């Protein structure tokens, strides 16, 4: 029998550390090791949550920008997957007023039945748009459009009625049901691709930029002035820059989620190209002004509220908790969701105006933000300014909570690891252990073999380590990995097998030992020959070329010896001697140090060098005088 016990992680226990585990766990935005009576010196602004004397504080500088970018990317991907359906229905609700009043009589700008059908209702493949729309010549004059739509309506009244019913969305659940019914479940994630393309770089620039700007302001501003205005200014500047860069992708995503995007990316790109042809490249930033109107106030409100809510909520939990421990993920989640809902409520009118401006017809001029909001208020009242507001608030709450909690948790994880590593406490790392063990089945039994070198990293710790462990009188186990762990594991199995023997009155079977080992190894394979450890490749080449099922005892022993020696000579982690165990039905023979392939032929002599062999700059001779000391008092 042959099996392997591998332990590849080494854990370092922190002893006699002066680190305060409370703040290592709960703080992230501070710096170095600072007594609390010197907190405001050198530009360090620290929120005092505990009132404890001297503590160790973690700094965001411990997290390199690449790790912050990774944390932001993870949060952006997770947020996009969860919130795209919310965003889709919200966009439909906010933009449907541009299509709701469209009838057959107001399609003068369209020259084909296809355009007419798309204007009357949300045409989809399920409603047989292709059959009726493409059966007529798209080059028909404008006067024929009314007749064409009327004919379609008469021929397929149920489909047109369904389309018109679908055109009117009455809230989130109604929108979800109708989109799934007429467009399919996957349509709920329409716009996800450009959304991810947009959200990942946007979030990276936004969050990393916010952290950098806020930390710089914290260093230069003092007191509550810093706590209040640093998040506000940092959020405003970071959002302005990131939104300006991503605005064209935001326009594409919004159009894909609007009624125009039902027919796919091809039609959306066609509309975008037409818009650029008519209005120039700057039209790609059509929604930038309303986006800034929405996002800049949103960011200022959100970050100011988030930092304040997080600080107060953390204080509350610390005072309420018996041991002072808090769940940082839940704190960030609740703080982000609450602040996001407040900011989303106050900026919803700007979001409605942005959506309508971005999905407006290509021929429409770009009205100012004020004019768009005036038109919405005039046509729909104040309710129109908050159309889709409930859905947006829910979507923003979820996205803000997921994004900030993921970002904070990963950033804090990287900060703790970087800080501890900077203090000389290395992270747990996998390490390679050197061993070559083999096992074969031969004509009359089983033979196990192993080398005897034990290593401690690059150092040879033991040249005669025993790697074939006793389990029962008729069972042995070869172990490759950490020697102490394999010895303890096999000793545990051996004691359980002995208890089993005493309870049943007979020797344990192989299957019993294998079942016990599987609880730690999780899987086993029954093979005629096997090699494991760092020298297994060299040993396996010997076994594959020479093993046969009818091997005699002596040939089998030589095969095992040669396989182990191949591992010794080709792997630096394996070495020293060869141990062999022969297990047959009625006896077990243990051959310790059966072969010594690296035994020295002669003892090395001491090295002596004549005076003057090694060059030196000068020679100084000092005379040492040894005198007798005072006599010992033995009276």
From TrEMBL:
Belongs to the mitochondrial carrier (TC 2.A.29) family. It comes from the Eukaryota. It is a multi-pass membrane protein. Solcar repeats lie at residues 63-216, 226-312, 327-413. This is 26785_t:CDS:1. One of its GO terms (biological process) is proteolysis involved in protein catabolic process. InterPro entries: MCP_dom_sf, MCP_transmembrane, Mtm1-like, Ntn_hydrolases_N, Proteasome_bsu_C, Proteasome_bsu_CS, Proteasome_sua/b. It is found in: Mitochondrion inner membrane; Nucleus.
């Amino acid at each position: 029998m042959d099996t392997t016990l591998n332990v590849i992680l080494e854990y370092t226990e922190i002893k006699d550390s002066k680190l305060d585990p409370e703040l290592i766990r709960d703080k992230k935005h501070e710096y170095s090791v600072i007594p609390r009576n010197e907190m405001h010196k050198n530009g360090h602004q620290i929120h005092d949550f505990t009132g404890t004397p001297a503590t160790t504080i973690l700094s965001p500088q411990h997290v390199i920008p690449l790790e912050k970018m990774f944390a932001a990317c993870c949060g952006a991907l997770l947020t996009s997957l969860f919130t795209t359906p919310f965003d889709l229905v919200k966009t439909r609700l906010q933009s449907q007023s541009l299509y709701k009043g469209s009838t057959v009589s107001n399609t003068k700008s369209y020259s084909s039945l296809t355009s007419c059908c798309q204007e009357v209702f949300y045409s989809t493949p399920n409603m047989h748009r292709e059959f009726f729309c493409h059966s007529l010549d798209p080059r028909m004059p404008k006067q024929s459009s009314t007749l064409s739509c009327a004919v379609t309506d008469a021929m397929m009244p149920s489909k047109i009625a369904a389309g018109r019913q679908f055109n009117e969305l009455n809230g989130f659940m109604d929108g979800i049901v109708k989109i799934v019914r007429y467009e399919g479940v996957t349509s709920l994630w329409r716009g996800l691709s450009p959304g991810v393309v947009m959200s990942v770089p946007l979030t990276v620039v936004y969050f990393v930029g916010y952290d950098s700007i806020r930390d710089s302001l914290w260093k230069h501003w003092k007191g509550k002035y810093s706590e209040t205005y640093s998040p506000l200014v940092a959020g405003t500047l970071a959002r302005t820059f990131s939104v300006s860069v991503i605005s064209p992708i935001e326009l594409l995503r919004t159009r894909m989620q609007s009624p125009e995007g039902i027919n796919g990316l091809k039609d959306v790109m066609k509309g975008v190209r037409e818009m650029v042809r008519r209005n120039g490249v700057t039209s790609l930033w059509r929604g930038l002004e309303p986006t800034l109107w929405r996002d800049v106030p949103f960011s200022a409100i959100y970050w100011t509220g988030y930092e304040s809510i997080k600080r107060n909520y953390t204080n509350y939990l610390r005072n309420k908790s018996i041991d002072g421990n808090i769940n940082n993920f839940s704190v960030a989640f609740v703080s982000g969701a609450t602040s996001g809902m407040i900011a989303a409520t106050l900026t919803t009118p700007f979001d409605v105006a942005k959506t309508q401006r971005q999905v407006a017809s290509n021929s429409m001029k770009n009205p100012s933000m004020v004019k768009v909001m005036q038109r919405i208020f005039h046509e729909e009242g104040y309710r129109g300014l908050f159309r889709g507001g409930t859905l947006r608030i829910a979507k923003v709450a979820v996205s803000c909570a997921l994004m900030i909690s993921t970002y904070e948790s990963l950033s804090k994880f990287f900060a703790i690891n970087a800080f501890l590593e900077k203090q000389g406490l290395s992270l747990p790392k996998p390490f390679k252990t050197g061993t070559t063990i083999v096992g074969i089945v031969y004509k009359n039994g089983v033979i196990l073999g192993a080398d005897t070198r034990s290593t401690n990293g690059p150092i040879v710790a033991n040249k005669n380590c025993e790697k074939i462990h006793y389990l029962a009188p008729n069972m042995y186990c070869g172990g490759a990995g950490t020697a102490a762990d394999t010895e303890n594991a096999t000793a545990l199995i051996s004691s359980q097998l002995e208890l089993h023997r005493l309870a049943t009155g007979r020797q344990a079977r192989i299957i019993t030992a294998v079942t016990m080992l599987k609880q730690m190894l999780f899987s086993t394979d029954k093979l005629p020959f096997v090699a494991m450890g760092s020298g297994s490749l060299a040993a396996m080449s010997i076994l594959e070329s020479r093993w046969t099922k009818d091997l005699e005892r002596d040939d089998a022993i030589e095969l095992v010896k040669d396989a182990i020696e191949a591992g010794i000579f080709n792997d630096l982690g394996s070495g020293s001697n060869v141990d062999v165990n022969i297990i047959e039905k009625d006896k077990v023979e243990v051959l310790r140090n059966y072969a010594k392939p690296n035994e020295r032929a002669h003892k090395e002599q001491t090295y002596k060098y004549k005076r003057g062999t090694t060059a030196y700059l000068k020679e100084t001779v000092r005379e040492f005088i040894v005198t007798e000391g005072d006599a010992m008092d033995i009276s």
